[in-house]
């Protein structure tokens, strides 16, 4: 038993030394280099400009699987120096009034689009990351969500944001566990101003 404890202690010590050595092997950056790197990853670019297509005031039409379409409103605006688009929306769902907010951005470090959303129909926050397709106008985000109506946790979901057309854009929500015909929600945003 004593030999086993000694072996574990030696292994832990070696792991700490290896970790410290690899950190010391990293080249040291000057304050100027650090500021340059910070600037590189903190500056909005062309990917952020694409998201700017959601800015403005919109009327929405939402269709859910097996239900009649409902109307609502949305407003998108830049925040934090054009780093994120904040999209506020309101409407009705299953006969209930709801409102929500989504933050869309682009992570220069990860090289991925990001979205976080919250709404008055739940108490959770939905996060997803995505990539742009070859057209340069459609972003597919992947994330998970909890479905309290069915008791499911962390079910895989895909969000497809199509910014192809000026004056309108669409958002689709896909339940990836369904398989084919996975679209469960579709929202069309038409510009008001």
SSE layout and pairings?
Layout: H1 2-25, H2 31-42, H3 46-51, E1 56-64, E2 70-79, E3 84-93, E4 96-107, E5 112-119, E6 126-132, E7 138-147, E8 152-162, E9 168-175, E10 183-191
Antiparallel strand pairs: 1-2, 1-10, 2-3, 3-4, 4-5, 5-6, 6-7, 7-8, 8-9, 9-10
Protein architecture, described:
The chain has a 10-stranded antiparallel β-barrel. It has 2 domains: 2-42; 46-191, Calycin beta-barrel core domain (Lipocalin). β5 (112-119) and β6 (126-132) form a beta hairpin. It has 193 residues and is an alpha+beta fold. It starts with a helix and ends with a strand. The chain has helices at 2-25, 31-42, 46-51, and strands at 56-64, 70-79, 84-93, 96-107, 112-119, 126-132, 138-147, 152-162, 168-175, 183-191. The longest helix is centred in the N-terminal third of the chain and has 24 residues, at 2-25.
What is the name of the CATH architecture of the largest domain? Beta Barrel
How many strands, which pairing sense, and closed or not: the largest β-sheet? 10 strands, antiparallel, barrel
Please state the overall shape, judged from the principal axes of the Cα atoms.
globular
Distance separating the two termini: 75 Å
Kindly report the spatial arrangement of strands forming the biggest sheet: 1-2-3-4-5-6-7-8-9-10
Proportion of beta-strand residues:
over 45%
CATH superfamily label of the largest domain: Calycin beta-barrel core domain
Number of strands: 10
Q: Quickly count the helices.
A: 3
Order of helices and strands: HHHEEEEEEEEEE
Q: Please, what is the oligomeric state?
A: single chain
Mean pLDDT: 87
CATH fold call of the largest domain: Lipocalin
Determine the fraction of residues in helical runs and give it as a percent range: 10-25%
Low-confidence stretches: 1-21
The level-1 CATH class of the largest domain: Mainly Beta
Structural class: alpha+beta
Number of domains: 2
